[in-house]
């Protein structure tokens, strides 16, 4: 996908609180040196961050061992200064604004010289009057996935905290084997047996012939004969254009997150389930006046609700790291800490009567909102009834998503789509052929990717993936998956075990933000979630700027913010506050 300029990868950005000894303008150079050393140590823990990729544009790309890395090609520093108002609030606002621009710019930039530079990069933002840095870590999807990005940030947190709080010097055993001079990291020899194996080697994949044939037939049959027919979306055409990422961010504090999760439990669902349900409900409300396109790239036009709305396909990426076999892991690698692209998909289809019913309910509420706004009055009793009916339908869909994810997880690796990749001799060529088909519908309307929760402090060496997660779908403990329930622990509880002075001497992750690049061909909208234990949940919404209808995309982000906010206050979902234009 990278070489086809379709998708450049994902990123996890973490806000790190800086120890007191490294704060301020006078300590900036020491801060940079300390951070670079920690990154170098983290890279040595993960072989795929040390490898080049040769033949990316061929059907047989290969990883190659590199002898050294110039970290100046991978780590970029930006110092943000406030010229007028020196207040911390102003500096924080500037930091957030620059960070959003940085994330979008980095997602729009491909990884250069992959033969000699591994496909990862960092941008670190700092400000002399702020006690934290924002560390963007981006990764080419060929190297690793979102779960792996979380592993890297957890590894980096450990390495940052190796330093003695009094002397700022790391213990000798921690630096054993580190050869870093003039920003150039010399990589130690690595036998092939120590390199990260391929996904199909790490994860046992079995495929039954009958299932494989059914999947192939569903791909080659005419669209009207397929089990889940697709049509073009007027608001989300596909075009061969440069990647331009749009971004909206939503933050839910720890106490509000607790209430959201409590509501999910009461309705027999998870965070991923309710977000998926909110997504399809928002689309039903915002696209109810759209019809399918009559030509590729047609501009949206408001028309009456079609008698048969275009099917909506939601996707949930499901981490397969949980299925990595210990005996398949490379020598000297912890199976639970392997950075690799090992992810599959769970699809949620909406069409026919189910979708038509949702459109009707959403249409009634949207009409009630329009009338209420026009008259500047309160919603009538009938309008309130319509809103509660739509909310009940939303929770019903959320529970359905949970059941589908539970069923997906119960099957393990048997009859998984990734098991069919070995039968595709030229995957890149196949993708290029599909992109060349005029007026091809998008396979997935919206993807909801939930990385769960990560520890913001190093209390003991973390076991990854964490056993405390936000839900039982994309990232969850194995015990919870078997039961089909959440196992997120006390997400909103404080994790601090020391006093304030002790905290002042440690590196702490205060916020995490998972994002992805825009996709001209493929998924129309990407919704990404991650929480830091004891702190906030961050949800990002990404899409291809200039191609996806801004009213639909930004409006969906606004709906998620308002609706999650309602649940966070312990209220009913407030459809009446839905923003019209985002």
TrEMBL record:
| Low complexity biased stretches | 290-310
Task: Locate the region Disordered.
Answer: 288-310
Q: Which GO terms describe its molecular function?
A: N-acetyltransferase activity
Q: Name one Pfam family in it.
A: AATase
Cross-referenced InterPro entries, in alphabetical order? Alcohol_O-acetyltransferase, Atf2/Sli1-like
Name this protein carries in UniProt = Alcohol acetyltransferase
User: What organism, scientifically named, is this protein from?
Assistant: Apiospora kogelbergensis
Q: What is the lineage of its organism?
A: Eukaryota, Fungi, Dikarya, Ascomycota, Pezizomycotina
């Amino acid at each position: 996908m990278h070489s086809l300029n379709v998708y450049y990868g994902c990123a996890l950005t973490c806000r790190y609180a800086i120890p007191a000894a490294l704060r301020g303008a006078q300590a900036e150079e020491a801060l940079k040196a300390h951070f670079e050393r920690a990154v170098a140590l983290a890279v040595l823990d993960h072989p795929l961050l040390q490898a080049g990729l040769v033949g990316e544009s061929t059907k047989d790309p290969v990883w190659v061992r590199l002898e050294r890395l110039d970290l100046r090609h991978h780590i970029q520093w930006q110092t943000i200064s406030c010229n007028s108002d020196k207040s911390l609030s102003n500096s924080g606002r500037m930091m957030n604004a620059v960070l959003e621009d940085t994330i979008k710019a980095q997602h729009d930039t491909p990884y250069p010289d992959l033969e000699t530079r591994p496909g990862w990069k960092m941008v670190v933002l700092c400000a002399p009057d702020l006690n934290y840095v924002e560390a963007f870590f981006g990764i080419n999807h060929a190297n690793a996935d979102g779960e792996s990005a979380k592993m890297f940030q957890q590894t980096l947190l450990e390495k940052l905290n190796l330093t003695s709080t009094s002397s700022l010097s790391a213990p000798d055993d921690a630096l054993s084997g580190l050869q870093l001079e003039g920003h150039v990291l010399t990589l130690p020899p690595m036998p092939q047996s120590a390199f990260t194996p391929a996904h199909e080697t790490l994860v046992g994949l079995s495929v039954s012939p009958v299932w494989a044939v059914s999947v192939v037939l569903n791909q080659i049959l005419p669209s009207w004969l397929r089990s889940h027919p697709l049509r073009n979306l007027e608001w989300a055409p596909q075009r061969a254009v440069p990647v331009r990422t749009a971004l909206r961010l939503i933050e839910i504090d720890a106490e509000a997150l607790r209430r959201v999760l409590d509501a999910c439990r009461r309705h027999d669902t998870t965070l991923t389930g309710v977000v998926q349900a909110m997504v399809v409900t928002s689309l039903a409300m915002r696209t109810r006046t759209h019809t399918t396109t009559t030509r590729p790239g047609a501009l949206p036009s408001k028309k009456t609700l079609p008698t048969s709305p275009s099917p909506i396909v939601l996707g949930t990426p499901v981490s397969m790291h949980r299925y990595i076999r210990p005996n398949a892991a490379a020598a000297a690698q912890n199976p639970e800490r392997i950075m690799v692209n090992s992810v599959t998909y769970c699809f949620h289809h909406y069409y026919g009567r189910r979708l038509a019913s949702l459109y009707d309910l959403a249409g009634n509420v949207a009409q009630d909102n329009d009338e209420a706004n026009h008259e500047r009055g309160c919603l009538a009793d009938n309008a309130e009834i319509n809103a509660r009916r739509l909310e009940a339908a939303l929770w019903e869909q959320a529970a359905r998503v949970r059941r589908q994810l539970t069923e997906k997880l119960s099957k393990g690796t048997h009859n998984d789509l990734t098991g069919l990749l070995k039968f595709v001799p030229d995957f890149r060529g196949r993708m290029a052929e599909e992109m060349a088909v005029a007026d091809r519908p998008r396979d997935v309307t919206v993807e909801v990717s939930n990385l769960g929760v990560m520890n913001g402090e190093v209390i003991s060496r973390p076991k990854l993936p964490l056993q405390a997660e936000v839900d039982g779908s994309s990232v969850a403990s194995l015990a919870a998956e078997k039961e089909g329930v959440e196992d997120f622990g006390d997400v909103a509880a404080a994790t601090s075990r020391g006093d304030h002075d002790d905290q002042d001497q440690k590196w702490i992750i205060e916020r995490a933000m998972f994002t992805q690049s825009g996709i001209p061909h493929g998924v129309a909208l990407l919704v990404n979630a991650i929480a830091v234990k004891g702190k906030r949940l961050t949800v990002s919404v990404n899409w291809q700027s200039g191609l996806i209808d801004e009213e639909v995309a930004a409006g969906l982000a606004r709906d998620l913010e308002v609706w999650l906010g309602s649940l966070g206050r312990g209220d009913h979902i407030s459809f009446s506050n839905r923003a019209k234009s985002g």
